[in-house]
Amino acid sequence: MTLFMPPFETKLSSKGQVVIPREIREKSNLSKGQVFRIEATSAGILLRPVTQKKAGLRLEDLQGFFKYTGEPVSDEELFQPVDYSKNWNRKAGK
After folding, report:
1. pLDDT(92) > 60
2. Rounded CA separation 3/26 (Å)
3. Is the pTM of this model over 0.90?
4. Can you name the residues that pair with 88 across neighbouring β-strands?
């Protein structure tokens, strides 16, 4: 993503925090809790948002993502191994 915006000035707080101006946050779709990778380069300090994929998702983050509308399944049934051999034989023309 390339943003063409005029430069902004911001201050470093006593806690080492830097405020990213609202205009940049909105155009970059940044929100509270965003994780960043920070690098010191020969040109200065580079701050890059880390995508969710790189940051890693927890199982709790996916809760409710897939909706199951069938009958309840017991833990025993849910954790049974899946036998894919039927599908392999069908694809091989057997």
Report:
1. no
2. 11
3. no
4. none
- Type and span of the H or E element at 78: helix 75-78
pLDDT in tens, 72-89: 889 898 888 888 887 776
Q: Which residue's entry shows tokens 């020969």?
A: 42
Are residues 37 and 58 in contact, defined by beta-carbon separation less than 8 angstroms? no
The one-character DSSP state at 76 is H
HEC readout, the chain: CCCCCCCCCCCECCCCCECCCHHHHHHCCCCCCCCEEEEEECCEEEEEECCHHHHCCCHHHHCCCCCCCCCCCCHHHHCCCCCCHHHHHHHCCC
Q: For residue 78, with 0-12 CB atoms within 10 Å meaning exposed, 13-18 middle and 19 or more buried, which class applies?
A: exposed
CA distance 76 to 37: 42
Mean pLDDT of 40-46: 91
Residue 63: how many other CB atoms lie within 10 Å = 8
